[in-house]
Amino acid sequence: MGGVLDKPITRKSSESGVDCGPLRLTWAASAMQGWRVSMEDAHITLPVVLPRRASSAAPWTQTAVFGVLDGHGGAQVARFSSSRLPEELAKFPLKEGPGKREQMEDAMKGSFHKIDDMLRSGHFAAELLALTNRTAPPGAGPQAMIQPPRNGDAHSAGCTACVCCITDTQIITANAGDSRAVLCSGGVAIPLSKDHKPNDAGEKRRIQAAGGWVESCGAGQHRVNGNLNLSRALGDLEYKKDTSRRPEEQIICSTPDVTFRERDLEKDEFLLICCDGVWDVKTNQQAVDFVRKRLPSADDATEPALEHALESLLDDCVSPDLRETHGLGGDNMTAVVVLLKAPSKARTAKPLETRSSKDTELPKVQLISCTAEPGGGAPSEAFASTSGSMKVRLRLPLGIPVSDVFLFLAEDKAAIQVMLQERSEGMPQTWSERFDLQQWLPEASVLRSPGLPAKFTSSSGRLRLILPWTKTVESRTCEP
Hints:
Phosphatase 2c, domain 1; seven-stranded antiparallel β-sheet; 17% helix; 2 domains; 35% strand
């Protein structure tokens, strides 16, 4: 959200990928700042949920997670949440059986509530600081840690969150706010989420019961306490101060509505998730029709084609003149599309041996420096956790996209793997370098995952990561 510029910034930040695993999904995301003075959206594009520990969250490894988060009052909560939500979701255990659906609903709601708990705790203030007003593409992954900090406050900042988990049989959607997920099935737009607005009867009752009020601002607009034009969000902690009420009873609550949709492998075509900057301009069917006309068949679909379809959608939604459109088309815009029809033939990368002779010398990723810095503060209990950050600087081959950055965590080892990707005859050519980071950490410290893997391209030839670490120490006291 934010103020308005003299003319829109229509440059796009786009990314795409192919999951060659069991789900065989092709996806793309595109974001545009538009008329706003800053970009406050973020998104999640994880074709597979990776557990934080090799032994945990095994049931989630067959689940893809995609989402859009629309920030307000600053970008930090949206960026923090896009990085942390998949990690928190993967911590919830799932057991096969008749109660798995209820477990997944509890996990979705629990991960949303956990984000608020993390924002409230104060332990993540430095991370929020680092996520404020950075200029890197807003997505889940280490790019959320690249730019220098300015300020951050989760009490006055918040974000919507519309997150879809895709399995081989279902699409599970958790939504808080007015971002929206729509399924295209047989050409028909089917909403998978419901917008949360202050004037909805149920939302209004909760707001008033918690001591808030809903103000009518004209032109069909309603705001909570004269401020927010939505009734559910992550962050916005100033509306969640009543400790006598449960999370779902606060003036602004983060509890998502969770819906389950059985996949129709014959009819379901694609999933479209957008922020309200798109939905304010287009109806569900209009957006689906627009994207559908620009998508190739599943067998012919390529990631650039998906990116182009989304970029065209954003261009079509942005206002040429805010006075003529009465403000519509003036917001940040982010869209994610996921093709649900798998190609008839598996799309796999050609082996590196097929590269031409002039390409046999593969470019290398070089580790420039790696330093661990303490976060400060002395432990006050018998056993306390101290923290800090590890700064990792890598030199990349110029002009070669970075397709994935993985942080591997085990009980006694931490490593970063950087995967590079080129294209040869339309197919990805991938190789990687791995660096062991444990030797640079203080003794008995472990790195904490900032929500990897990530998809982004480096044009500068340098990659700088700031990775949080924690260490449990024993505080010795003198016996009386």
